[in-house]
Design brief:
about 45% helix, single chain, two-stranded antiparallel sheet, TIM Barrel, eight-stranded parallel β-barrel, 10 helices
């Protein structure tokens, strides 16, 4: 994989307001980039807004949206997309990503709902992604999501995902934990899913923890430490495609910063190991 394709590099961390003051004066050197949900920061002014601006002036940032609702049948909120464009320009944010899901139907649903895996949905979603890209004047990255039901399924998850990103000509945010969670919940091979991803579209990755409801039912919570099978799957992705930027997501039960940085450093350790492997293989 050509690493020059990436807009950020290294290991990233989701920026939460609870840790902003702790890192403002001395951003941790191990964090290569930060990710924020634009919905949480666009309206912020005052002291917190100034602190955020101080961070974006010093560090690399990307946006990961929560409410674009790219799969909805509601009209696309173009005013919101223009607000994202202005926010990205103001803070020199390099990339915008969103979930391959929907979260509105005549109003917000406050959850990420699965899009039916159908050819009709492929066309509908791809057209909306293309419109967002036209407004932003750059490609966006679409994330494979966790889901617990597949209503109206006409094709597999990976075939649906690949069809959408191909038709929309967008990039990919590959979520390693979501692949693992879905592979357990829906009984498919996680490595086979990985191998079917169009690697040239990968912009960056997410990795996170989950909750074990039962041996065959996992819940994607982003509220627990990452387990070994998910770390191993990240290593497999690097083995297949080379090292790409990877961000730690932790949205609930947020531990002390020192514990978050331990997981960030685990990402960096795995990245370094696979970078060495690829360097030796190409020597």
């Amino acid at each position: 994989m050509d690493t020059t394709q990436f807009l950020v590099d290294g290991a990233g961390l989701g920026l939460r307001r609870s840790i902003l003051a702790k890192i403002l004066n001395a951003p941790p050197s191990e964090v290569g980039f930060y990710e924020v949900a634009p919905e949480n920061w666009i309206p912020i002014g005052g002291k917190l807004g100034k602190q955020f601006r101080a961070m974006t002036e010093r560090c690399n940032f990307i946006c990961h949206g929560l409410s674009l609702s790219i799969g909805s049948t509601d009209p696309l909120d173009e005013q919101f997309v223009h607000a994202i464009k202005a926010f990205m320009a103001e803070h020199q944010i390099k990339l915008y990503s969103e979930h391959l899901s929907y979260c509105s139907h005549g109003g917000h649903l406050y959850d990420l709902m699965p899009i039916p895996f159908t050819s009709e949905a492929v066309t509908h979603v791809a057209e909306r992604i293309s419109r967002v890209q036209d407004i932003l004047e750059q490609k966006i990255a679409i994330e494979n999501v966790s889901y617990y039901a597949a209503p109206g399924q006409e094709m597999t998850e990976i075939d649906f995902f690949n069809a959408v990103v191909e038709e929309a000509n967008c990039d990919i945010l590959i979520d390693i934990n979501n692949i693992y969670v879905n592979s357990v919940n829906h009984g498919y091979d996680a490595e086979a899913f990985l191998k079917a991803i169009p690697a040239h579209r990968i912009a960056y990755a997410h990795i996170a923890g989950h909750y074990v409801e039962a041996d065959d039912f996992l819940v994607d919570t982003h509220g627990a430490p990452i387990i070994d099978p998910v770390w191993n799957l990240l290593g497999k992705a690097y083995e297949l495609y080379g090292v790409f930027p990877t961000l730690l997501e932790r949205d609930f039960n947020i531990p002390p910063l020192s514990e978050l940085l331990l997981e960030v450093n685990t990402i960096k350790t795995i990245q370094a190991a696979w970078s060495d492997q690829h360097a030796k293989a190409s020597a």
